[in-house]
Amino acid sequence: MTSSTKSEDAERGMDVVTRLTRWAQIPLLVGLAVAMCLFLITFFVDIFDAVQTHEFLDRKKTILLILNMLDMVFIANLVIMVATNTYNTFRIKASAHGEDYIQQGQKAYRRMKHRIVSTIIIISSIHVLSELLEYSTATALQVAALFGFHLILLATYVVTNVFESNER
């Protein structure tokens, strides 16, 4: 076998692996769609329960309900971002390779990573705020641990962005 035949065989093998990897993402997308439907049902059940029990008439409970709804919206946005990114990865054509394509993919990945991490930090902030408002349901150690975890997320985000901006 010549070296060009070996490289062509290796390239075909990698092409098959790439296609199989992309097709393996389909069940993940279906699972995310089902999870979003269940999450949507939960969202409306929470609103219905709040109206039925008149919890919205209590200021503190209304604030907690709104925080819970915001939390659900941000989690849903996170799922949509991941599903959209997964779908876009799936539909990439194998023939669309090249230096410009790789650079565009890296920029898109950085933007997506920034959005996902920002959303996770927002969700963490909402959880910390909810726990502080519902202090009677959590111990001081649990609130401190949640706050510490949130600070670690913030520090990681800052360090990641500082190093990333130095690379550009």
Task: Explain the overall architecture.
It is elongated, with a radius of gyration of 22 Å. It has four helices and no strands. It has 168 residues and is an all-alpha fold.
Give the number of helices: 4
**Major beta-sheet overview:** none
Count of individual beta strands = 0
Order of helices and strands: HHHH
Beta-strand portion reads under 5%
Class by alpha and beta content: mainly alpha
Distance N terminus to C terminus? 43 Å
Radius of gyration: 22 Å
Query: How much helicity do the residues have?
Result: over 70%
**Average of pLDDT:** 78
| Low-confidence segments | none
- Name the overall outline: elongated
Structural descriptors:
168 residues, 0% strand, mainly alpha, elongated, 86% helix
Concise account of the structure shown:
The chain is built from four helices and no strands.
How would you summarize the topology of this molecule?
Elements: H1 3-52, H2 59-90, H3 99-133, H4 140-167
